[in-house]
Amino acid sequence: MHHVILPPKVDQTVDRNTRSLNKLSAVKVRTAPEGKYSDGGGLWLHKRTDGGGQWVFRFTVHGRRREMGLGSVSQVPLKDAREEAERSRSIVRSNLDPIKERERKRREAASSLHLLKDIALDAFESRKAELKGDGVAGRWFSPLELHVLPKLGKVPVIDIDQKDIRDTLAPIWHDKADTARKAMNRLGICMKHAAALGLEVDLQATEKARALLGKQRHKATNIPALPWQEVPAFYLSLADGTVTHLALRLLILTGVRSGPLRFLREEQIEGDIWTIPGTAMKGRKDATVDFRVPLSKEALAVVKQARRHARGGFLFPSVKKGVISDATMARLMERAEMAARPHGFRSSLRDWIAETTSTPHDIAETVLGHTVGGAVERSYRRTDFIEQRRKLMARWAQYVTGQGGQLLKMIKEA
């Protein structure tokens, strides 16, 4: 009786084609149409319709089938892709996951990013997408840059403790309370970012520093506002049709903040509605929600005049480039020897609403773009009170233009 000797089973944990390597050529990589092509040993080429492609390494480890990207064909030549695939096959033969090993090495490399100045810049980069205008204005980073990094920037982040933070922020803790608070918050974010990179930092250091610094004595001061009774006379003085006068007029008529007004673009206005992008609204956590501003007849007339000055799509351009600045409007009021500032007209409007109308609180706060109620309440309330605000702002326009200031009764939507 003859015994049939069977060949040993081939280990298929990496790829069925391990015995057949280097099946592709550089010409094939460059000219192959859309599709998936095996080079053997788990290395695959995924070509797209546009001619581009991606290297992918397929493997099985711990009974789990996985794919790991090795880069695009435009950046990784065939030779390099094969070398990387061979390194990955070696890792698999050691019963390890190449993807996890790559992540581990990245974390080790990131741990060399250890100075606070490097961590701060990396944290800033990772948050740019959630900041207004990608943080171009630098307001997020400036408290760190001005008050923290000069002293602690070159200190390894793992060595920073509450005493270092206290000594750094103590000079401004009371005199520049708001700036100090922002610097402390940004520093806390940097410490969390360092921890996410795998560094051994004290995540409680900022809270401990707050305890050492004590409660801030500084109290915020309100921006001076013109009493609502004096607004009509000031509005009447803004009559020369310049960009500054028109900007102040629309600021008064709408009650918006100066930022959205200065960057007002023609396409944001449709009919009698001005839609401010959510990203331009200060203090709103949900930047996807836009804010609608009803424009009175007087406001529309101001917009019509402003269009004569429009440049680059902006209704309120500056003399040289960009848009009119906050300081330009403020200087006009300074030259008139007024204590009030442009932002204060929001308070003027709010006081007029409270003292001369019976407008419900929710509507009055919505006029100023404030978020009203908790998250649950807002999820059930689908209105932005646009119709009520349209009537209210029409009456405000009548008042500031000297056409009357009768009491107005507002009924809140259910």
Automatic annotation (TrEMBL):
Keywords: DNA integration, DNA recombination, DNA-binding. InterPro entries: DNA_brk_join_enz (IPR011010), Integrase-like_cat_sf (IPR013762), Integrase_catalytic (IPR002104), Integrase_DNA-bd_sf (IPR038488), Integrase_DNA_bind_dom (IPR025166), Integrase_recombinase_N (IPR010998), Phage_int_M (IPR053876), Phage_Integrase (IPR050808). The keyword DNA-binding applies. One of its GO terms (molecular function) is DNA binding. Residues 221-393 form the Tyr recombinase domain. Pfam families: Arm-DNA-bind_3, Phage_int_M, Phage_integrase. It comes from the Bacteria. PROSITE patterns: TYR_RECOMBINASE (PS51898). Coiled coil: none annotated. Belongs to the 'phage' integrase family. PANTHER family: PROPHAGE INTEGRASE (PTHR30629), PROPHAGE INTEGRASE INTS-RELATED (PTHR30629:SF2). This is Integrase arm-type DNA-binding domain-containing protein. It comes from Mesorhizobium onobrychidis.
